[in-house]
Structures are given as structure tokens and as C-alpha cells.
Amino acid sequence: MPAAVVAGLGSWLPPRVVTNHELTRRLDTTDEWIRSRIGVTSRHVVDPGTATSDLAVEAARRALRSAGVPAAGGVLLATTTPDRPCPATAPEVAFRLGLGAVPAFDLAAVCTGFVYGLATGAGLIASGILESLLVIGADAYSTILDPEDRTSSVIFGDGAGAVLLRAGDPEEPGALGPFDLGSDGELADLITVPGGGSRQRSSRTPPDRGDQYFKMDGRAVFGNAVARMAGSSQSALDKAGLRTSDVDRVVAHQANARILDAVAAELGMDRERFVSNIARVGNTSAASIPLALDHAVRDGELRAGHRVLLTAFGGGLTWGSTSLRWPGTGLPEEQ
């Protein structure tokens, strides 16, 4: 069976930058607290009228150009902030990219969405349904945050990242390794937007104030994120016949700098092997891993031949991991 091979990479951040100092002018917090607790100094935020599809299209265009191809056989968009509840956003993204009547659909796994998307793409390619697929992680989290909530407002940023997957040989650079995926719906309320769905709407009562905004139990999420990402990482490595010592770079979901520290400690790995761009972009949810990959290549931190571990944790609860040998050539597009 063919393997799914990473052939292109691109990302996009909205131009507007919001620093910690700007947030401290309207929230009861300090730059020192945000840096020490979250590890963020700034984040990018969409301007009024900019939607998730706008971010996704820009990232996807760069992924296609980096691969040197004009089109892809389909679009998978991982997002928690679709342009509308209905229809899915991916078909519009495919249309704006000029891809024609290709299959296009959204995937909802919150911050694990990109890894779930890679696994789905790998299955579509291995089965012969598609020869290539754009897997995009894009979120405009600023649109679902309570502007008065000092906890969530300082964590999240907006952005998009994309890879082009193509059919290839399982042994070639860029081929995705075995996946480990999991979920725990018993803890769904740890990360949630309570209002706007069928459960709230079917009650025939107006949502409580603030229910349209993102809510998270930070303390409980921290422990679950560390345990699940560490456990999933080890499982994915075991399936690939790899040890932690074989891994050159870990690109984990950029949830929180302290979570990255704790996952590294749990795996017994040097923190220096963990790629991190959270300081300048914050937690970008489904866009987190492809954005970190793109920035790491541009910064020279990730190079051809590196053995890379990808791992994520998000609402649902969901988690997932995989590995690959970084292909390098043509990645990412020069800007």
C-alpha cells in the first residue's frame, strides 16, 4: 500500500500582533505572570471580517507552492472555529484554491485536529481513494474567547498551517509512520463551548451569559495533557520501532510552555529537542503543529533527515501522535 508522504508545507498568521502589554491594559494580569505561567509574549489576532477560511487558504497556497504543484486531490480542514456552523468550511477553501470538485470536509478534534487529519489523510491515500490531500489546521480562537476572561485571552492566538500529503513509498523521507490516537468523552466538559449546539438549542432556553465563549478547566487539562501526550508519544514510537533516543525533534501541540517541559520530563528527553514557537504565537489550536513545523524549518531548527515526533492533545478529550523522517527538500516555500 502507498504511504502518505509530506510533500509541501506552509503557514499563515494574521498581520495584527497583540502583545502581553496590550492585554494588561484591559485585563487584571501582568506580562511577568503570562510569561512565567504560559510562556507567551505575543499572539496574532484576526482583524474584523477575517475568518478561518481566509487563514486556511493562505496557508494552503503556500503548501502547494512549496511542493511545486498547482493543485491537490482533496482538502481536509481541522478547525474548532468554522466560518459557519453549516456548511463545512473546507469546500469553500477548495473552491478559493481553484481545486475544482474535489472532496473537501472539516474535522473537529480541537487541538488534536491536525494529527487526526494526518491519520485520516494517510488512510485515504493508503486505500487508493486519493493521490494527494491538503491537510490544514486553522483556527481563529479570538472569535470564541471571552474578552473579559484573563485566563483564556492570554493563551490563544489565531493562525493556520498546512501540509500537502501525496502517495509515496513507506521508506522514503516524509512518509508518515504508525499513528496512536485516543479519546475520552467522559471528560468532554474540561474544554468546551457550552452554547450554540444542539444540546443547548433543543432546551428551548436562551444560553447563559458567556456560554457562547470557550471555557477550560486549566488545572485538570494540564495533568491530562501531560499524561496523554507522553503516553501517546511512547505508543507511536513503539509502533514505529523507535526509541526516544532516536528522535531528533519533538513538535508537540503548543498548549503551554510548562506542559512542554513536563512532557519532556515524562519522556526522559532533553527539552532542547522540543520545538517551541508558543512565545510568539500562543496556542493556535489545530494550527499549532504545522505552524511550529514551518517556523522550525525557517529557523534552521528542523533539517532534512531529522527523525520527528508529532504529538497533540485537545478537547474531546482527544490525543494523538505519529513520527516521520523530515524530507527537507522544497520545504517550506520561501517568503
Notes on the structure:
GO terms for molecular function: 3-oxoacyl-[acyl-carrier-protein] synthase activity; beta-ketoacyl-acyl-carrier-protein synthase III activity. Keywords: Acyltransferase, Cytoplasm, Fatty acid biosynthesis, Fatty acid metabolism, Lipid biosynthesis, Lipid metabolism, Multifunctional enzyme, Transferase. The active site is at 111, 253, 283. Its EC number is 2.3.1.180. The structure is a single chain. The radius of gyration is 19 Å and the shape is globular. β12 (307-314) and β13 (318-325) form a beta hairpin. The chain has 2 domains: 3-168, Peroxisomal Thiolase, Chain A, domain 1, CATH 3.40.47; 180-325, Thiolase/Chalcone synthase (Peroxisomal Thiolase, Chain A, domain 1, 3-Layer(aba) Sandwich). By secondary structure, the chain is of the alpha/beta class. α3 crosses α4 and α8 packs across α9. A 5-stranded mixed β-sheet has the order 1-7-6-4-5, with helices on both faces. The chain contains 11 helices and 13 strands. The chain has helices at 20-24, 31-37, 52-67, 90-96, 113-126, 150-153, 198-202, 218-240, 257-267, 278-281, 288-298; strands at residues 3-12, 17-19, 42-44, 75-78, 104-107, 132-140, 158-168, 180-183, 191-192, 215-216, 249-252, 307-314, 318-325.
